[in-house]
Amino acid sequence: MSQLRLNPLTGRWVAVAADRAARPSDLISRLEPTVADANQPCPFCPGNEEATRPALETYGRGGEWAVRVVPNRYPAFEGDEPLHVHNLGPVFTQAVGSGIHEVLVFTPKHDDTWADLDDRQIAVTMAAIRDRMEDHSRRPAIRYTQAIVNHGHDAGASLEHPHGQLLGIPFVPGEIAEEEAGFRRFGGPCVLCTTLEAEVDTNHRVVYSDDRVVVLCPFWAGSPYEMLVVPVDHQSHITAAAPRDVAAVGKAMRTALVRLRGCVGPASYNLVIHTAPHRADEPFHWHVHIWPRVTSMAGFEQGTGVLINILAPELATRHLSVVA
Asked: How far apart are CA 317 and CA 207, in angstroms?
């Protein structure tokens, strides 16, 4: 089972999940790309369902699945124990890394990416994410669920077949806590609602917009082609959002990724859905971060937390708009 260890310098938890070193590609030099073993069938392709743990949820019609949610074989978090902190010494604080770690296989097609999904596939995928988060929210020990898609080796993907992950954890992670603090500091109206209004009005950094969602390269972007996908309707929790708005966000993510591919080719990227912690009533507005992995983080960024973006978001927006 994983351990949580508290960093006393930052106040953030670190998960020590030694069993995950058994995953494909872990502890292998990033200088070498991950190559699938041709002798091993893909565990996420149709017909190989027995290669995974039994599905938690299956979505589809006519006996064929469109989306499967299965337990991760190498979970970073596992178990129902609430967060219980143990102090082993003056600076040694730990807890059991309990929680949930699920794999979302969001297409049966091995060579598709999120950019290749049709409207129907996106709608069922986003519905599956919402459903799983709702299920997690009913478990008292789970305080937050992170939904992610890692695409490409440089983004941390260990298997080629497109998939995402849902990780339910017994604490509110530092990144979300900082965003919650940002909403509180702003005061008055929602900071993201205000951002949408200002960005649509000036139209300097808007990549795509419609009545339900806006995609922009944020004014504060810390890396080239970083994008933020924000639903127009203000909801703190994705589970409270209307199904049509949840689907619209997924379609806008596809638009953003199609344009990214048109600009830089088949780049690695991370998709991260940020929603309010379960059962929380703090100011928040759920949204999606898209972080293309087209540059690497060096010592200054790691040492200071100050990101250096070599491509202004205004110029990135122009590049992304050219391929529209």
From this structure: 6
Determine whether 295 is exposed, middle or buried from the number of CB atoms within 10 Å of its CB (0-12, 13-18, 19+).
middle
pLDDT interval class at 35 (50, 70, 90): very low
Write out the DSSP string of 220-253: T--STT-EEEEESS--SSGGGS-HHHHHHHHHHH
At 263, is the secondary structure helix, strand, or coil? helix
The separation between the first and the last C-alpha atoms of the chain, rounded to the nearest angstrom, is 47
The arithmetic mean of pLDDT across residues 191-201, rounded, is: 97
CA gap 235, 133 in Å, rounded: 15
Task: State residue 16 phi and psi, 5-degree precision.
Answer: -100, 105
315/318 Cα distance (integer angstroms): 5
pLDDT band at 29 (very low <50, low <70, confident <90, very high): very low
All structural domains of the chain with their residue ranges: 3-21+43-322
Class for domain 3-21+43-322, per CATH?
Answer: alpha beta
Instruction: Write the pLDDT tens digit of every residue in 46-75.
Output: 999 999 999 999 999 888 999 999 999 999
